[in-house]
Design brief:
5 helices, mainly alpha
């Protein structure tokens, strides 16, 4: 049986829910990893807060979704402790945000 990745590379359509979930999981993980790299660059002083917020935009939006929050619990151990805490705080902020307003990312200085 071919994986979703193999099917996509061959230009084939995904033919099952499990194929689609495989792609969704990979996309979500890439958002975590992109956020991790932006967070590291910010911590090291390579980028400013504005660039960090820009780099985290996709992740912040995804973390508003309950299934992404559940996904994070499984992916969490693969990241540094400081990034785990950072994402946990983003999830808390997303859960506390009023559904009628857009959540604002808050970044603590180094």
């Amino acid at each position: 049986m071919r994986s979703a990745r193999q099917k996509l590379r061959a230009g084939e359509q995904l033919d099952s829910d499990s194929d689609e979930w495989e792609v969704i999981n990979a996309f979500i993980y890439l958002a975590y990893r992109n956020g991790d790299l932006a967070y590291l660059q910010y911590q090291q002083g390579f980028i400013d807060e504005e660039r960090l917020i820009s780099g985290l935009g996709l992740l912040v939006n995804l973390l508003e979704l309950p299934f992404v929050q559940a996904h994070w619990k499984q992916a969490r151990p693969g990241f540094t402790e400081s990034y785990q805490t950072f994402v946990d705080n983003l999830i808390e902020e997303a859960n506390e945000a009023d559904s009628t307003t857009t959540s604002q990312l808050k970044v603590e200085p180094n």
